[in-house]
Predict the structure.
Amino acid sequence: MNLYNHSKEKLTLANELIYEIKVKEAMSKNLLFFNENATFREIQLALKEKKISGVPIIDARKNLIGIVSIDDIITAFDKNYVDNKVGDYMTRNVITIPKNFSVTSAINRLEKFKVGRLPVTESSNSRKIAGIITLSDILNRLLVVVQSIAEEVEQKEAKNTQISENLMRKISEKSLRFEVKGDDFDNAGRAASITKKYFQKIGIGKDIIRRIAIVCYEVEMNICIHSLGGSITIEVDDSNIVVCAHDKGPGIADVKLALKPGFTTASEKIRALGFGAGMGLPNIKRCSDKLEIESSLKAGTILKAKINLGEKR
């Protein structure tokens, strides 16, 4: 099940939210877990009682050391070791997700590795378990957020979306700038989140904000994945909001090819983390009214995305 479809031209509220909701906001915190001395039968009885399909196995410090699923228990019954300790049989190479990552990353990993749940860790360098996240958890969080947004809309009168001269002056008074470090996935999405809140505060239309947020997110992820670091600047140019990114990476060998959906140069390590699906630049292009990319294998890449402040496309 894919919660967002990159092939659709129209951006939906769900598209926006999955970029911004963090794993820690959607995960289940009330955990059922066992140590490696538990038997498959003990775990099977607990899963049946709680109506869940898997549990993490942790050590004395609550560090994740394995996972046992209902499939593992069925195998234990079939091979007649259901009363044995799980430590000798459990899956130790567990796919996890840090709690500060976006649920976009969680969805990518759930789909890529065909698993029903992801143990959530305190950080990308930690094995200490903080929760469990499933697609159901993500959907439930989306519903809560959407309902909250709907209630806010009902309480407010419709606002005039026409950009006034006064509003343009307010926007022009300040540009936003973010420094982005390469490989800093724990903070990925910071630029998109701050930018969205800023433009909401000064009254930019929702559709425009949605497009700006996605451009900022994808730009930030590209810098994290493909470069040694860089910067993002958001400012106003005439009647456009301009997102400009400059990275210190190796550059893009073929810009035209890189704009094709699904094309990626991400390493196996990056893809294993759930990133590098080859949709970053296509998403930026789809959300922009004008996109300019200058890239050199020696000097890095400068990207400029313009989003018109007038009527919706």
